[in-house]
From TrEMBL:
It catalyses: XMP + diphosphate = xanthine + 5-phospho-alpha-D-ribose 1-diphosphate. GO terms for cellular component: cytoplasm. Converts the preformed base xanthine, a product of nucleic acid breakdown, to xanthosine 5'-monophosphate (XMP), so it can be reused for RNA or DNA synthesis. Keywords: Cytoplasm, Glycosyltransferase, Purine salvage, Transferase. One of its GO terms (biological process) is xanthine metabolic process. It is an enzyme of class 2 (transferase). Its EC number is 2.4.2.22. This is Xanthine phosphoribosyltransferase. 5-phospho-alpha-D-ribose 1-diphosphate binds at A128, N129, G130, Q131, A132. It is found in: Cytoplasm. The gene is xpt.
């Protein structure tokens, strides 16, 4: 997606530890028009797959997931990171380690919103080590449902997550693939 690559070039900042900061348009301040185009692109790439729901992990995946749900006319479920008083124990849960925050969160999805015949598309803002997608895959396994694949806004392909998921047979569609962040320069994969 050229539009996304241009936003990354214009607003992306490389931080120590191979962190790409894109809070100007993706995961703090959100560019709604760009997110709409992201959702439309995921809808195009996963058309005809029989998907029934979109899944993501709060909070940075919500904007692209909602726009994908809008484009596909499907409900969006976000796995919660914090236990809520309104959620009971009838939950699927998994532990997810955050690369950028260096913390582990327990994510949960209510069994109420998961049907045995669901086929889900997982959406996330970043893919580095694949922990968020792994957590959602664990929940899908617990629920015994099918996974169509993972739609990733930005993949850091120099980290192992994307290849590990692909090696497991998970379809991964990344809209921008970062080859390197060395010397504070953003280098994209050639497609």
């Amino acid at each position: 997606m050229q539009e996304l690559n241009e936003k990354i070039k214009q607003f992306g900042t490389v931080l120590p530890g191979n962190v790409l900061k894109v809070d100007a348009f993706l995961n703090h301040q959100v560019d709604p028009e760009l997110m709409l185009h992201v959702g439309q692109e995921f809808a195009r790439r996963f058309a005809g797959e029989g998907i029934t729901k979109i899944w993501t992990v709060e909070s940075s995946g919500i904007a692209p997931a909602v726009m994908t749900g809008l484009a596909m006319k499907l409900p969006v479920i976000f796995a919660r990171k914090h236990k809520s008083l309104t959620l009971n124990n009838n939950m699927y849960v998994a532990d997810v380690y955050s690369y950028t925050k260096k913390t582990t969160n327990r994510i949960s999805i209510s069994k109420k919103y998961v049907a045995p015949d669901d086929k889900v598309l997982m959406i996330d803002d970043f893919l580095a080590n694949g922990q968020a997608v792994e957590g959602m895959l664990e929940i899908a396994d617990q629920a015994g449902i099918q996974v169509a694949g993972a739609g990733i806004v930005i993949e850091k392909s120099f980290q192992p997550g994307g290849q590990e998921l692909r090696d497991r047979g998970v379809r991964v569609e990344s809209l921008a693939r970062i080859k390197s962040l060395a010397d504070n320069q953003i280098e994209f994969e050639e497609d």
